[in-house]
Structures are given as structure tokens and as C-alpha cells.
């Protein structure tokens, strides 16, 4: 069987099973809290829970040099990894950068990429502390970000704690990054304010490190960052928490600028576009009210966790009737 | 300027300067012991020094599927990273695996690769605790290995502590891996015992995790693992320690099997072949005698650290006369 037939998540499941059946040292295994399958790996440190995550960012798979500048590339490659630490409710501390570059790459392009990376790292006090470089036929940036919780008693945000009756909420807006990607690939001509905003959403996503820690402080237990798309990422929470979820599509927070430029399609972008790197989380209505007060960005309740078919995400309109994405002209909708 | 003109080490220097001029958080920066430029990153943890390293292993750059099986690939990709932890004198604890694979890759090849990885991980109690998978036009395996020292007072092995008068020593044999690579790429027909030994040296290197910790216990301060080749890696120590070194070529430990099959060329393989992943270290004659007693593998003194031209490695014969590699038919010798 080919990897493409098994699919990304099938492959991860298979490898996770191989790995979990191996013993490891008594100490490392005993200290491990979260292995493969959440946003980041977590284990008990001496003074706090330790976090680590890694993601590869590969040319013409995850990015294109036709649409992204090298500086944006550096920012985004680091941001998507810091976002995984944010989704665990942790602080990011160190980053290791493994860089594969074609020999003909211009040195000034590489330094521009590092400028983007360093700019983001500085905003969150992350130290780029190591890595390696290699020659390769294409650009691949693999970044490892390490982090930790504030102290040993601080809990982490996992994907497996959602309970029926909890509300589902999200930070800021959804679909803005996907709108940015569409604008860049389709070469849409938008007014300059919209073009700048959408480009930034797609190429300079802001990791919700501060918000993730505030969620923890307000008692949230369950979160994920939206990388694959709202529905797909909510399904991850539902599968690991063994619950379902109902989303009211009319409640989805969509940037007015996206709505103005993409009309009905905005909803599909918000539901399945991905790469917004906003935090999707669950909690009681009371907890979410506390979160709204604590964080400075918009927080919107978009649905609730329900008992029933594990892993199923149901879409409803404002009257509670089933909502079908085909209505908004999204025929080949994929939930991956 | 192109990356190829600047060279790998030039690029690393440039990026390290960009990164070190960025502030980072007060805490992370203050806790950092070793940033870019040693075998691994090191920082103060609460109960021990923490270590992290990452290396990419890219198809047709670092390995070829024509010569390596998938299982060997998994072993080696992990081994080269564990070797960096060994060169710091630490224990390896967790590994994160970022895997880029073409869609047409057979799932059984990927599981074979994981078998190789898990086999090595088990021998050292390392837990494969996370990672990600992506689609890519070629196979790229980027592994992050985390580790730590035994306790807070245990020192680490760095590249910067060598002092004039110290002896230079190495674990086990040199050039065996390079002989294995030559056998595989040139399709040399050797007897089956030699073929097995050389293949194993090149494709299943054994990280010197145990030996690294014993070096620390015996008082060694300075070490590196031999990945680029003896001369090249000794130059790294010399540059960072601001010393020179003199190597007596007749003392180099070369497997009898390599000498028998490669004759005079063995010496060039031992001096510059690389990928042996043995530990190259310095210490007083007394310290090295203690190391010889403590470790179970061969330890050979091959030269000494000298004052004088920083970074210069001089080769001499048994009479102390200058030795030129051209003598052994190695015209285009590169010290990278």
C-alpha cells in the first residue's frame, strides 16, 4: 500500500502504534504525558511540564516562493511551530532550525529568512539556539520549538478533554489566511488595505502564545490550533475526547473584509480553509466568559460539544436545521 | 553571493551572528550554555543540563536508497543525532521525527524505517515521542533528540576546552564507515565478513552515548563526534579552543579489514572519510589512561594539542616529519 492511500493521519496512527509498543527507558516513558497525536509532546520536568514540537515546511508543498517572500517564510515556519506550543498552553523558550537549501540559493535570501524568524522570536523571547544546514534540491525548513508551562502545577491544554455540554469557541477570525492564499494564487486584485490584511493573515500568522496561557489560567482544558481547518481540527478534538460537536455556521467570526471580497465563499473558507493558527477550545459558558474578559482578542462561541457519534462534526444554521456546504458552492469539500 | 560560495560553515557563522545579536527572553538567554556551533544546544535545567540537537537526513544528499535499506536508514537517521548528544556527554531521552515522504512511498518501507529507529531507540531507552509527516518530492528525515546530563553538577563536553599539551584520542577505529561507503558506491566485491562489517560501520553506526558519559566521569572536558572526518572535526575543536593540533598518522587506529582491502588508501579514509561517529576528545595523558580503563571499546592516542596557529591541524609521521596526504594518492583532499 502507498503512503498516499493510507493518508497522513493513517500513517501517523500506524507509526504511533509501532512506537508506543517499544519500551523506552523506564524514566522517559514514565515521565511522558503526551506522545504522538497532540499538538506537541509533553513530559514532566523537574520544575514544570516540558513541551517540544517539530514541523517541516517544504517548498511547493507548504509554501511557494512565488507568493511568499523569504522574510515571510522565516516568520511563518517559526510561527506554525510556536502555535503548537500555544495550543498546549505553554511558553516557547528555544528553537532549533534545520535548513535544507539548494546550492544556488542567494545568501541574502537566507539572511532575509532569518530576519523574519528572529523578528518573531524576539517578540516572544524565544532564543534560536541551534540547528543544522544541508544542501538539497529544494528549500525545506524544519523547526523544533521547545517550551514549558509556568510551573509544575500548571496544567496543559490537550485535545482529549472536551465534554458534552461544553461550548466550542475560537480566537479572532476564521478563513482570513485561506482568503489570503486564494488572493495570492488566483492573483485577485483587491484594494490595498484588504490585500495587506489578507497577505499578513496567510504569511505572517501570529502564534497565540499569550492567549494559550490565559486559557489555562481561566480553567480551559482542551484546545487545538487551527492548521488544517476548523472542521478538520475540531474532529481531532472530538475523536480524542470521544465526543461529537455541533457548529452554528451563522456564528462563525469572519473578517468583514473577507466577507466583502469573497461573499458566500467566505463561509467555506472559514470552515475548512485552515492555516489561521487561531486557538479552537472548549469550556463551560462561564469559563469562556472569563476567557473573553482575560484575552485582548475577539473570542466567539461557535457551537457546542455533544454526546453521540464520536468524532462527528455537525453543521447547523441559526434555526438548528442541518446545513450543507454545497449551499455555498463548495462541491468538493474535503474534511481530510 | 550563493550559499555554495559561502560554504556550510560560513553560512552557519553568518546565521549564528544574526541570532546571537537578538535578545531573546532574559530567562532563556541567561540559561543558555551552548548555542549554535557545538554538537548540541545546552541550557541549564532545574535538575540537570538540558541538551537538544537536530539533523536532517536527505535523500541523495545524505543517503541513497540504492545502497541503504529502509531499516538501515531509520537506524542511521536516529544514530547521527544521538551521536551529537553523546559528544556532549549526555543521556538521550526523547526523539521527535519529522518525516517527508513522496506519496508513492510504500507503507511497508516506512514501517521498516521505523523498525530500524525503534531498535536503536530501545537499546538506549530513548522514547520516540512526537513529530510530523508531510508529502514531499523526496525522502527527508529530520530528527530532534533531547537529552540531559546526569545531574546539575555534571559538566558537559564542549568543543572549546582543549589546551596545549593535552593528548588527542579517539574511540574505536577510523575510516571504516568511509570504506563501507566506497565498497557500496564502487560495488567492490569483498569477502562476506568484510562486506558485512563495512556495511554495518557505514549504515548502522553506534552512537557512543555510554562512552560519552564515561568520558565526563573521567574528567574529559572536550569532545566532538566524527561526522565530517577526523581532520575536519579536529579543526572544529582547534578553532573553538584557539589551539592547533599535531596528529601522528602512524598511530591512527584502522580496522585490519580496512587495511587489508584498501591498502594505502586506508589512511586517507581514516583522516578524512567521516561518518564514523566515534568520539574525538582531548585530555591529559593521565585522564586518557583512566578513560582507557573505564570504557570497553578501544581508545587510541593519535596526537596532541599544541599552541600556535589557531585551527591548524598538522600531520606528522612517526619520526615527527611533515606528512603529506598526496603520498597516499589522495590528490583532491578536502578539509571542508
Can you describe this structure?
2 copies of one chain form a homodimer. Chain A is an alpha+beta fold and 336 residues long. Chain A has 3 domains: 1-37, no CATH class; 51-148, 2-Layer Sandwich (60s Ribosomal Protein L30, Chain: A), CATH 3.30.1330; 167-328, Phosphoribosyl-aminoimidazole Synthetase, Chain A, domain 2, CATH 3.90.650.10. Chain A is 37% helix and 23% strand. Chain A contains 12 helices and 12 strands. Chain A has helices at 3-6, 8-20, 26-31, 70-86, 107-123, 176-185, 192-203, 209-217, 230-241, 256-262, 265-272, 285-294; strands at residues 32-34, 41-44, 49-58, 91-101, 127-135, 140-148, 167-171, 222-225, 244-248, 279-283, 299-306, 313-316. In chain A, strands 1-2-3-6-4-5 form a 6-stranded mixed beta sheet. In chain A, strands 8-10-7-11-9-12 form a 6-stranded mixed beta sheet. In chain A, helix 4 packs parallel to helix 5 (107-123), helix 4 (70-86) packs parallel to helix 8 and helix 6 (176-185) crosses helix 7. The interface between A and B is large, with 79 and 79 residues.
Amino acid at each position: 500500500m502507498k503512503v498516499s492511500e493510507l493518508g497522513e493521519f493513517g500513517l501517523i496512527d500506524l507509526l504511533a502504534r509501532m512506537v508506543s509498543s517499544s519500551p523506552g527507558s523506564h524514566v522517559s516513558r514514565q515521565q511522558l504525558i503526551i506522545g504522538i497525536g497532540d499538538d506537541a509532546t509533553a513530559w514532566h520536568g523537574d520544575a514544570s511540564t516540558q513541551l517540544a514540537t517539530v514541523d517541516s515546511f517544504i517548498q511547493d508543498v507548504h509554501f511557494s516562493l512565488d507568493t511568499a517572500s523569504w522574510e515571510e517564510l522565516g516568520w511563518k515556519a517559526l510561527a506554525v511551530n510556536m502555535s503548537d506550543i500555544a495550543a498546549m498552553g505553554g511558553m516557547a523558550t528555544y528553537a532549533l532550525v534545520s535548513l535544507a537549501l539548494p546550492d544556488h540559493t542567494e545568501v541574502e535570501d537566507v539572511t532575509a529568512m532569518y530576519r523574519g524568524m528572529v523578528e518573531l522570536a524576539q517578540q516572544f523571547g524565544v532564543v534560536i539556539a541551534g540547528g543544522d544546514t544541508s544542501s538539497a534540491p529544494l528549500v525545506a525548513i524544519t523547526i523544533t520549538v521547545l517550551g514549558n508551562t509556568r510551573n509544575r502545577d500548571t496544567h496543559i491544554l490537550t485535545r482529549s478533554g472536551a465534554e458534552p455540554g461544553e461550548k466550542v469557541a475560537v480566537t479572532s477570525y476564521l478563513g482570513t489566511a485561506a482568503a489570503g492564499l486564494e488572493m495570492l494564487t488566483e492573483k485577485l486584485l483587491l484594494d490595498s488595505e484588504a490585500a495587506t490584511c489578507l497577505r499578513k493573515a496567510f504569511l505572517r500568522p501570529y502564534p497565540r502564545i499569550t492567549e494559550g496561557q490565559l486559557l489555562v489560567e481561566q480553567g480551559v482544558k482542551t484546545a487545538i490550533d487551527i492548521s488544517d481547518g476548523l472542521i478538520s481540527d475540531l474532529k481531532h478534538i472530538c475523536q480524542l475526547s470521544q465526543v461529537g460537536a455541533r457548529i452554528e455556521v451563522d456564528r462563525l467570526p469572519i473578517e468583514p473584509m473577507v466577507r466583502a471580497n469573497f461573499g458566500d465563499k467566505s463561509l467555506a473558507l472559514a470552515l475548512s480553509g485552515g492555516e489561521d493558527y487561531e486557538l479552537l477550545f472548549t469550556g463551560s459558558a462561564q469559563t469562556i466568559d472569563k476567557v473573553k474578559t482575560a484575552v485582548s482578542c475577539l473570542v466567539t462561541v461557535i457551537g457546542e460539544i455533544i454526546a453521540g457519534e464520536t468524532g462527528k462534526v455537525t453543521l447547523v444554521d441559526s434555526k438548528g436545521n442541518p446545513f450543507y456546504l454545497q449551499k455555498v458552492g463548495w462541491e468538493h469539500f474535503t474534511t481530510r
